[in-house]
UniProtKB/TrEMBL annotation:
SUPFAM superfamilies named in the record: Nucleoside hydrolase
Organism: Neobittarella massiliensis
Pfam families per the UniProt record, alphabetical: IU_nuc_hydro
Protein name as it appears in the record: Nucleoside hydrolase
Single Gene Ontology MF annotation: hydrolase activity, hydrolyzing N-glycosyl compounds
Domain Inosine/uridine-preferring nucleoside hydrolase: 8-303
Amino acid sequence: MDKQRIFLIDTDTGSDDAVAIIMALKCNDVKVEAITTVAGNVTIEQANKNALISCEVAGTYMPPVYAGMDRPLLRKLIHSYETHGEDGMGNMDLAEPAHQLSEGHGIDIIIDMARKYDGELEIVALGPLTNIAMAVLKAPDIAKKIKKLYIMGTSGFAPGNVSPVAEFNIWADPEACDVVLKSGIDQVYVGWDMCCGDAMLEPEDIAYLDKETECSHFCIRCNKCLMELNEGRFGHPCLDMADPVAMAVALWPDLIIEAPHAYTYVETHSEQTLGQVVCDWTNTLGKEPNATMCKKLDNPRMKKLMMEHML
């Protein structure tokens, strides 16, 4: 058997984060060594609870979960209750998890693991980049020790989901994204555009998953609020699985068909374009590339793998 890849998942555990965590824990090719939480979709306390519950639902193994930053670097904390529910999990009113948080701060765990698994650690960031930015600011040496950072964030090459140009994770803490983009970490962005169109779970996919197993039912049920939101947004109850798509790219990088490596920057000042991430993929500015932005994925294979790892 090939050596398992080493993952750390950084999450603001909303409903689609939960599905992404379950996918990773069900994939035999990787070992999730730790989960760190960050405020974003919900409060840090709720993110902690949801992360623990997600691991328990997966039913495989229990990685340690550590609490991270409870607010953005500079800005007021804003949640995404309209998308994921007041509890981040479709208002399921879930019982308390059987497991507890592990001792230690998420920022220090990221630093320690980057040094421990020098050149092997892959991080999947599913929420605002606050923890990653703080870790780099505290220990700049880890930037070259992280093998790869996969980020669910940006609007990609299309409109955003919280403004005409911005996506929630980046918009919630654009200064953190700025730090990460300037850090030297080898980073891959999976924008919201990669989660729409034929990447979505359609009614027939949802109906199948809802009844197939207890785990897949949980994956659908916790996304009830997102389905309701999407019925108004797209005209039918579909699911744009943002974090699961990013996790799929991290788990199976060969899903990427086109992804320019280019100079990329984030807007941190303008109110109208706050959080917009610009990928200069035509090299207009002539600056050194610092990030990879997914532009086209193998969506049929991706959906098949995603659904298989929700069962």
